[in-house]
Each structure stands twice: as C-alpha cells, then as structure tokens.
Amino acid sequence: MLLCLDVGNTHILGGIFDEDKLIARFRYATHLIGTADQFGIFLLNILQAKKIAPENIHATAISSVVPSCDYTLRHTFSLYFDTSIFMLQAGVKTGLNIKYKNPNEVGADRIANAIGAVNAFPNKNLIIIDMGTATTLCAVTKKRDYLGGTILPGMRLGMESLKLNTAKLMEVDIEAATAYLGRSTRESIQAGLYYGQLGALKEIIAGYKREVFADEPVMVIGTGGFAQLYKDKSLFDVILPDLVLQGLGKAYELSLQNGEK
C-alpha cells in the first residue's frame, strides 16, 4: 500500500492506495503537526481506525508547500514506519513539460494536480482550479505542456484579512451565499467572499480560453476544499476532490519507472 500526504498551508490531506484504488483518506491541521512522535502516533491511530496494518504501508509519497514541516515528516517515517519516502520536488520526472520561467517555483501541489489531471483526461487542454488556502489556476495543454497559472487569495484568507484589518468586521462561516445582496454584515461578507471568487474565476477562465488556448476546447477541473461550493454554478466541467492524491500516486509510479527514490 502507498501512503500519500499533501501538506498544505492549512491542512494535510492524506490518502492510502491499494494498487490504484484509494481506500482511505483523512485530513489533519498542518499547524498541529507538532513533533515526529506526535504526528507518528496520529498516523498510527488513523491506520488503526481504518483497519490497516502499518506494516502494509510499503512506501510514502509526499508533496509539500510547507518546508518547515519536511524534516518532521521525514523523521516521523524513519521512527514509525519501514517505508521508502518519495518527495515530489524540482528535478523529479513527472511526464509534464514545465514551461514556467523558473520551474523550481511551481508548487508541488500544483504539479501533483496537473499530473492527476493529465492522467484522468489525456489529450485534452486543461484548466485546473484548486480552491484551498490560496486559489490557484493552472493551464496544461493536450501535449502535457504546463504553461503556468494564476494565484489569488482563497476564501478563508479573504475573510481573515477583513477580520484582522478592520475594526468591526467579523469572522464568518465560509458557505455558498444565497443572494448577492447581504442584509446584515455577516451576510454581506459571505456574499462578497463567495461571489468575489466566482466572478474572479469566471474572468480568468475566459481569459485563459482566449489568450492561452485560442478558443480551442478546454476542460475545467475543480478541486480543493471550497470547490464543492460552486458545483451548481457551471464553473467546472468536473470536480475531483482527490485530484492531488491521485496525481501524487501517479508521480510515485513514474519515479519507480525512472529509477528514482
């Protein structure tokens, strides 16, 4: 079995694959990772709850955008698991042609999403939208050229910015707004967050289709914690909640084929 961990700024998304089948998934708050012992005990408890024996985990694949956690993760697996560790990072062969000016700047989560997307939908132009702490968009051509993307603050960052930088605005629940016009401060913030993201994404998608893909057919894929809020807004062609895990699993398979560790 393969244990995959996508370490984001807010959450660690974990998944366990038995061959190509995702048999378990879990989330853990990144700021609670603590020591190698604390995180190791958490993982052992998760495996016990999922009725998976730790010795059945033969390898671990990790994508991380939080460098301060990387040592703790490596130490965790050296202490509590007898597995190889694959880190998705610059220089790893992914099957993508990275066209970024500096390929080292592309986040591991964005690469994992792109790998998962091109394997799920080969020979298609793709726009991948990941709605997490940040909202990221990536453009990938049907030839597997990763062209680049767009990054904007996610909904929670927007809400926290309003709370921290104003005297009277408060924290609100992140949810689908029922109207453009809020009739209370709370409703007004929720409407601004929800429709602000929707409007920004529609504009950027339209720009990509014109400028990047010259109006060729494009599939728009949604993923990340907040993507489900827009499932009825005709924003995405498909929503794949586990896209980053699927991509990380594929990246690990490629590393075996290429003789990487």
Count, helices: 6
The rounded distance between the terminal residues' Cα atoms is 16 Å
Largest sheet: 6 strands, mixed
- Average residue-wise pLDDT: 94
Write a short abstract of this structure.
With 261 residues, this protein is of the alpha/beta class. The chain has helices spanning 36-49, 67-80, 108-120, 155-165, 185-211, 243-257, and strands at 2-7, 11-18, 21-29, 59-64, 84-87, 97-98, 125-131, 134-140, 145-153, 218-223, 238-239.
Structure description:
With 261 residues, this protein is of the alpha/beta class. The chain has two domains: 2-87, ATPase, nucleotide binding domain (Nucleotidyltransferase, domain 5), CATH 3.30.420.40; 97-243, ATPase, nucleotide binding domain (Nucleotidyltransferase, domain 5), CATH 3.30.420. Helices cover 36% and strands 25% of the residues. The protein has helices at 36-49, 67-80, 108-120, 155-165, 185-211, 243-257; strands spanning 2-7, 11-18, 21-29, 59-64, 84-87, 97-98, 125-131, 134-140, 145-153, 218-223, 238-239. The strands form two sheets. A six-stranded mixed beta sheet has the order 6-9-8-7-10-11, sandwiched between helices. It has a five-stranded mixed beta sheet with strand order 3-2-1-4-5, with helices on both faces. It is globular, with a radius of gyration of 19 Å.
